[in-house]
């Protein structure tokens, strides 16, 4: 991100939300030096960065005072849990195509653009602005605006950027991770091929959070899944786990190079055309997976973990009428009406309540309220470094507590 | 093609059309040895093969008697001209996904499956069977059934496998080449992106028969085209020729690797997203061409002259919402109603009559009526060998004359 570009954007967003500028002035009695990364103040804390780069280097914890009362049509929320998704890392690195806007409240405090990490998260309403209808104190909300800056203890948000989540029978972890991976899985199964009960799909990266959601949603809809995973230590246990989630077959990528696999797949499907493939890997194994697809199939990509391109014989397009698409949940949210978003959330929470869609395997990293910003910064940088090495296994959910002195 | 497979298919098709078997019995007074490749008989001739392989080796000329009168709901036609398209070569080689059926009439004569080459061609009705409505003697017809075996002087065809072409202001060459390349160009421009006047498209292989049709149809519709061609001797003349056809810009592939091209394209389009790309090449230059496409674009492939796969960064799919498709005119004909086929033919002939869609650059290879089958075979094998070396430049149209002794 060039500094000119980010300054322009910062300026633009500093000039836009007048309510927030007003809100900020309420705090003008506070001296600028009350904001610091080396000590904490009673109030809040966020995980921030002011320049793109390696998260293990550029992230720091930053404490800030209580939020002012919410301006009209906004609410103040406390974040209960916020995941660290792979895309969040790319955003901080500056290699993601969607750039966040600087946080208005914090940027004014520091007098230069400051970005809060995190795209997804579960918030609890703590204060309601004038004119707000449909939300009240203690309600749960999730973000539908991308790059909302969820790695924070609290935030003021516009009513139009959040959706209320029914709490009933939903865990905090499920609600905190409901806006990216489960809808990606649901929409990819829904928006491309017109599948009916008994139809078959293939997917790779089947052990990813999206992959596991695909397995469960497909099973709930009566679709059969052929799931590819990397061979690894304990692969049999993993296969068993995915089958318990509802996977019909789980296959290691190595088997894709075996000629016998095609015959095996044909036996499984009874020769029925596989009409949907889901890809988050690309590279050679995806070329081989695409060859398993039948006529008039759709191959939908939502990731490229191999960092290789998607390379396909042109004949698959011409003679088998293969169509290739990409899926990005952020675009889906931008394109769809509020009603469609609410409908999707309702569908997913219903699946969760019925026990048909489990949350991810996760662990919580708590940034405690009494820790110093220095200690909290070290903690988050250490985590970022470990995540950067890959193979973390579990989804990490951040819990940034309110600060106490 | 395995012999078991082709024999089964031959058997199936020999058993199906009872009228033709009946028709054949009318000829039963002829001795089997009147069919020969070393002498000719008064009547007809076809370019045939009985096994897949190199056309320069497996093709031969084969003379056969006059057709019996057409059975009900069929017509006898004389072929006036029939092109040799690249796909015809692949069919003979056995590497094309659509296999022809053996010619019933000729296979019975030889007592083993015999295939007549050619998919496309212009026929003139010479005899009309009982119950035929809408076609009369001297009408022009084109084939909509794939692999009709058009490299022949005459053929009996079902009414449902041909479409009448209005002769008015149409050359024989235009009509003989109207069912494959011009509709491929027209449908690719029409079926994927919703383009309006002033929109931009990119294509490679712009000098191919389809490419030239794309340029002309796009110009007629008011779409702007950026056309990629191979650098070659006389490339400036070729650029000039394509511009005269209506190309907005013509660019050599070499320029695709230049960073300045993106800026140049942006100047040309005024920053407008290019929403359609047409590909008959694949490989690296197509990857680069795809990067010129804007958001929500469609890349439609109808060939792969580089024999390389189509390889694209996954990010184009995810973040720019690129969709990739294939186009195959044979599938279009199978999928669409008779009305849709007639409508398309009407649209294309109208463009031709208005001078907006020229026929291809062509030369005619005549197999004369007095030549021996041996001489005719040598002629067609020699041509196949020359076509196999590529870079022929002009479309070759076959004219197989009726034989005279």
Say what oligomer this is.
Answer: homodimer
CATH topology name of the largest domain in chain A: Quinone Oxidoreductase, Chain A, domain 1
Task: Specify the biggest β-sheet of chain A.
Answer: 7 strands, mixed
- Beta-strand content of chain A: 15-25%
Tally the beta strands of chain A.
17
Helical residue percent band of chain A: 25-40%
Look at the structure and give the mean pLDDT of chain A. 88
Instruction: Provide the low-confidence segments of chain A as ranges.
Output: 1-38
Looking at CATH, the homologous superfamily of the largest domain in chain A is Medium-chain alcohol dehydrogenases, catalytic domain
Distance between termini of chain A? 36 Å
Overall geometry of chain A comes to globular
User: What is the gyration radius of chain A calculated from CA atoms?
Assistant: 23 Å
Class inferred from helices and paired strands of chain A: alpha/beta
Give the class-level CATH name of the largest domain in chain A.
Alpha Beta
In the CATH hierarchy, what is the architecture of the largest domain in chain A at level 2?
A: Alpha-Beta Complex
Largest interface: A-B, 29 and 30 residues
Instruction: Output the number of helix runs of chain A.
Output: 15
Structure description:
Two copies of one chain form a homodimer. By secondary structure, chain A is an alpha/beta fold. The first copy, chain A, folds into two domains: 3-177 and 361-400, Quinone Oxidoreductase, Chain A, domain 1 (Alpha-Beta Complex); 181-330, Rossmann fold. Chain A has 15 helices and 17 strands. Chain A has helices spanning 3-15, 18-25, 55-58, 86-93, 104-110, 172-176, 181-191, 209-221, 235-245, 260-269, 284-290, 314-320, 329-335, 338-353, 373-388; strands spanning 44-49, 60-64, 74-83, 115-116, 122-128, 140-143, 154-158, 162-165, 200-203, 224-229, 249-252, 276-279, 298-301, 310-312, 323-326, 362-367, 395-400. In chain A, strands 3, 5, 6, 7, 8, 16 and 17 form a seven-stranded mixed sheet that branches. A six-stranded parallel sheet of chain A has the order 11-10-9-12-13-15, sandwiched between helices. In chain A, strands 2-1-4 form a three-stranded antiparallel sheet. In chain A, strand 12, helix 11 (284-290) and strand 13 (298-301) form a beta-alpha-beta unit. In chain A, helix 7 (181-191) packs across helix 8. The radius of gyration of chain A is 23 Å and the shape is globular. The two termini of chain A are 36 Å apart. Residues 1-38 of chain A have low confidence and may be disordered. The A-B interface holds A 97, 279, 282, 287, 301-304, 309-328, 331 and B 97-98, 279, 282, 287, 301-304, 309-328, 331. Strand 14 (310-312) of chain A pairs antiparallel with strand 14 (310-312) of chain B, so a sheet runs across the interface.
